[in-house]
């Protein structure tokens, strides 16, 4: 990674492009207070997955697809700004089954009743693509989350807040969902949707230093 880092520094980046519509990811990138401007460019990347893929493969491939779709958009715009495009994808995995976002409130209740009283795994993939030379780095992080035992009534009250509806696994650890999580092992920001410690390590070789 160090070798291509040197090369890229001569092709100085002008901006970061975050290929995401997730307000959480936008806030997390902003929290790094990077010296480069950040452009938001979300796309409709194909999020279909193959049943044979491992959770790590799922999040890495989807993160790369999201970043690649945004990078292709930059090319179509004929943008000549050297940009680093970042894509991410988060899934919740229970007993080998990938749980995405709920389709409705009943689905969210059913998902949370499965998750309560035990642990599950959260995977987030992160992809960085240089818009001009196509250098691509993709990695993932894994966090184990233990949820408290919850009654159906409590789960229904939580789902009625609306918080679970746009989130993988039907909860948001950063919001009211904090009250139903017992503990975690691994990166907290990985659960929220963007592992900042990993992202910082991935940015370095592209010549983007965090503070
Ligand atoms: C488990 C969990 C997930 N989430 C969110 C993070 C992601 O936004 C979402 C998982 O869906 P993703 O498909 O990873 O992302 P997205 O559709 O929200 O945004 P985009 O594809 O445009 O980048 O779930 C939380 O905010 N908190 C949590 O505790």
UniProtKB/TrEMBL annotation:
CDD domains: Maf. Gene3D superfamilies: 3.90.950.10. It comes from the Bacteria. It is found in: Cytoplasm. Its main location: cytoplasm. Pfam families: Maf. Keywords: Cytoplasm, Hydrolase, Nucleotide metabolism. Signal peptide: none annotated. It is an enzyme of class 3 (hydrolase). InterPro entries: ITPase-like_fam, Maf-like. Its EC number is 3.6.1.9. The active site is at residue 89. The record marks 24, 90, 174 as: Important for substrate specificity. It catalyses: dTTP + H2O = dTMP + diphosphate + H(+); UTP + H2O = UMP + diphosphate + H(+). Coiled coil: none annotated. Its cofactor is a divalent metal cation. Belongs to the Maf family. YhdE subfamily. Nucleoside triphosphate pyrophosphatase that hydrolyzes dTTP and UTP. May have a dual role in cell division arrest and in preventing the incorporation of modified nucleotides into cellular nucleic acids. PANTHER family: BIFUNCTIONAL DTTP/UTP PYROPHOSPHATASE/METHYLTRANSFERASE PROTEIN-RELATED, BIFUNCTIONAL DTTP_UTP PYROPHOSPHATASE_METHYLTRANSFERASE PROTEIN-RELATED. This is dTTP/UTP pyrophosphatase. It comes from Paenibacillus terricola.
């Amino acid at each position: 990674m160090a070798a291509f880092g040197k090369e890229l520094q001569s092709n100085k980046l002008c901006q970061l492009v975050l290929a995401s519509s997730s307000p959480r990811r936008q806030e997390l990138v902003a929290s790094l207070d990077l010296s480069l401007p950040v452009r938001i460019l979300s796309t409709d990347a194909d999020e279909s997955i193959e049943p044979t893929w491992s959770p790590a493969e799922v999040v890495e491939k989807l993160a790369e697809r999201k970043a690649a779709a945004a990078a292709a958009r930059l090319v179509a715009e004929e943008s000549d700004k050297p940009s680093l495009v970042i894509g991410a994808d988060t899934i919740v995995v229970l007993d080998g089954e990938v749980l995405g976002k709920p389709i409705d409130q009943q689905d969210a209740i059913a998902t949370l009743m499965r998750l309560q009283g035990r642990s599950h795994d959260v995977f987030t993939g992160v992809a960085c693509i240089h818009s001009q030379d196509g250098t691509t780095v993709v990695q993932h992080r894994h966090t184990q989350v233990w949820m408290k035992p919850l009654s159906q009534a409590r789960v229904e009250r939580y789902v009625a807040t609306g918080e679970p509806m746009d989130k993988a696994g039907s909860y948001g650890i950063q919001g009211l969902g904090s009250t139903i999580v017992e503990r975690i092992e691994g990166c907290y920001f990985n659960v929220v949707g963007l592992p900042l410690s990993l992202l910082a390590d991935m940015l370095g070789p592209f010549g983007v230093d965090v503070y």
